[in-house]
Design a protein that fits this description.
about 15% strand, alpha/beta, single chain, globular, 7-stranded parallel sheet, 7 strands, Rossmann fold
């Protein structure tokens, strides 16, 4: 049975990814920081679907790397390593760049970019030794196109795209696939602040005429971590209903 580590598993997209992998037979290490209830609710849902013992909650705060080190010691001692890594942890920031503080800028890069670099380096020895592995980084359509009032967020997600492309080239000789998924507007708590009018306007801008669901992203991530995607690496794939073309 393969093992997947999903960061930010308590969020809307991370929760859906964790559920998909659990139902498909993976051992799921679900990293969270503050929202343990979301993980508990996930475990309850999975119990009703016959995957009671698939999820292993683990706490880590990427602003305190000692907690990440502690988590990885637990991961390695319990599972030996991970076969799949999904770097999903991240936060948004909706603010004028002239009002964005240096601390806010640094924080968003720590949580959206440095977290991926740090946790990836912790799992690579196992993957390189096995000569196989899958890594998927969750960016955003704004990492491709940029968004007004979200300069710090867009920049951090764009950095994750560049990181994915370079890392894919570096790890390809070791049989490790690295890809990036860029969600569009997804129905998650992160976007709960949008008004009904805002959501309707976004739907009108989306060729498929709707906003995305977390499951849409989860299905794509799972495909990229399966055997049918063995010749796909270094790719940046949008899951946005055609919003960015």
């Amino acid at each position: 049975m393969k093992t997947v580590l999903i960061t930010g598993a308590s969020g809307g997209i991370g929760n859906a990814i964790a559920e998909k992998f659990a139902l498909c037979g993976f051992k799921v290490i679900a990293q969270y920081n503050t929202n343990k209830k979301s993980i508990d609710d996930l475990i309850s849902r999975l119990s009703l679907q016959g995957a009671k013992d698939a999820v292993f909650p683990m706490h880590a705060d990427f602003r305190d790397l000692t907690t990440v080190d502690q988590m990885m010691k637990m991961v390695n001692s319990t599972f030996g390593g991970v076969d799949v890594l999904v770097n999903n942890a991240g936060v948004s920031l909706y603010k004028l760049i002239t009002e964005t503080t240096e601390k806010e800028w640094d924080d968003i890069f720590v949580l959206n970019m440095k977290s991926a670099y740090y946790i990836t380096n912790k799992v690579l020895d196992y993957m390189i030794d096995k000569k196989c592995g899958k890594i998927v980084n969750i960016s955003s359509m704004w990492g491709i196109a940029g968004a007004s009032m979200e300069v710090a967020y867009s920049a951090s997600k764009s950095a994750l795209i560049g990181y994915t492309k370079a890392l894919a080239k570096e790890l390809a000789p070791s049989g490790i696939n690295v890809n990036c998924v860029c969600p569009g507007v997804i129905d998650t708590p992160m976007n709960a602040s949008f008004s009904v009018d805002d959501i309707n306007a976004l739907k009108e801008q989306t060729p498929l005429g709707r906003i995305g669901m977390p499951k849409d992203v989860a299905e794509l991530v799972y495909f990229l971590c399966g055997e049918n995607s063995s010749f796909i690496t270094g790719q940046v794939i949008s899951c946005d209903g055609g919003f960015i073309l």
